[in-house]
Fold:
Amino acid sequence: MFDHLTERLSAAFRKLTGGVVLNETHVEEALKEIRRSLLDADVHFKVARDVCDRVKSRAVGAEIWKNLTAGQQVVRIFNEELVEALGGKEQSPPAFAGKPPLIVLVAGLQGSGKTTFCVKLALHIRKKLHKTVGLLPCDCARPAAKEQLVTLAKRVGIEAFDSPIQKGAVTVAREGLKWAQSQFFDVLIVDTAGRQQIDEELMRELSEIERVLSPRERFLVLDAMIGSQGLEVARTFHERARLTGLVLAKMDGDARGGIALSARAVTGVPIVFAGVGEKPEDLEPFHPSRMASRILGMGDVMTLVEKAQEAISEEDAMDSAQKMFGGRFTLEDFRDQLKRLQNMGPLEGIMKLIPGMGQMMGSLKGVDPEREMKKVEAIINSMTAAERKKPDVLNGSRRLRISKGSGTQVSDINRFLKQFMEMRKMMKQFSKMGMGSRIKKLAQAAQSGKKPLL
Ligand SMILES: Nc1nc2c(ncn2[C@@H]2O[C@H](COP(=O)(O)OP(=O)(O)OP(=O)(O)O)[C@@H](O)[C@H]2O)c(=O)[nH]1
Ligand SMILES: [Mg+2]
Structure:
């Protein structure tokens, strides 16, 4: 398992940071680990090679982002390529709209999860798309197969076609279609037989059923745990049934699901659903970005995002803290801080630790803090840039203009400015007390959520 791909990248590589341009040697180094991680996730080696080639062509010559290390930068590109290869960011689930009965043929290897998926899909279509659905069991190979579908369907109140399996799958398909038409179903879902191996007999039967039903959708159910041989399975089914969608069953297990990448690459067909449990409700639309995180190792994506955020906010915090204690804190800075506070940003901690700020926030108690903050923001927004930098110029007529502009009372402005001036005074005193050198510690402590020892 490779929970932290980034950490597996060599130390020298990891240390390269912002501003450096990645060269071929750097990228090759990272690709070694990336290739291994893809193979670990059961991605077919040819597919892994293609993804690596694409990452390479994008990464060589790319500049490392300011707050990322080389490793993170490559992992970032890798993640983007994975999402793209899995279907892109935006992917809407099929709507199953068309001339009724719209037929969905479900195929796959034995035990992959076809029958379970048929029931899940029927429920999804009824609940989410508000369409009428019927189920057609065309698995006449396994004696209990029909009963399994009929029983499952009954349990969730979906109608299933029930006829003797001795007739054979093709006859059942023909009769089932007539039944669906007579029932005026919007959608008819057809379960088929699976086999241990892909064999000619199964494929012929499938083609036959397909010819009789002309299904609009032809889905292949793949067990997420199938491993890299799933690529051949997907290819064969696609050649015979011209698939329109892939379904990944048993995604609730701990398979990394590399088959998603391989099957999608070899067929070019979208992955439409993921089965996430045994129950009929356990079906989800397929999310390429979630899947990419899974193949990549969740730890990496999380670390990546956190690291980037940390770096940004730490830098911001230092910058503001230095301004505050150097007495250069303006109304503009104050407005920025307010914005961050509203977002419950990481600066909340540092604000509380600053003399004056706590009081100011405290005086908001009893009133709606959100509204107060908006008011203050409106006041600052109605000032000119010069006024924000030097609030001392704010005489009576300027305050009147601001009150009109911000829809507040002059008394609101007076109160706010008084508080702001006091806060600034306190900040200056604070820095005179020799605290300037401890700003860094303060900022860092606030970042980590700990109270510093001043
Ligand atoms: N955990 C989990 N189990 C699943 C999922 N889908 C199916 N199963 C289980 O996998 C087993 C096989 O599922 P079926 O739906 O019978 O598979 P099938 O492809 O119809 O099998 P055959 O008809 O024998 O070819 C059953 O025990 C299901 O409960 C899933 O998404 N998650
Ligand atoms: Mg079945």
Q: What stands out?
A: The chain has 21 helices and eight strands. The chain has three domains: 5-85, 102-292, 301-448.
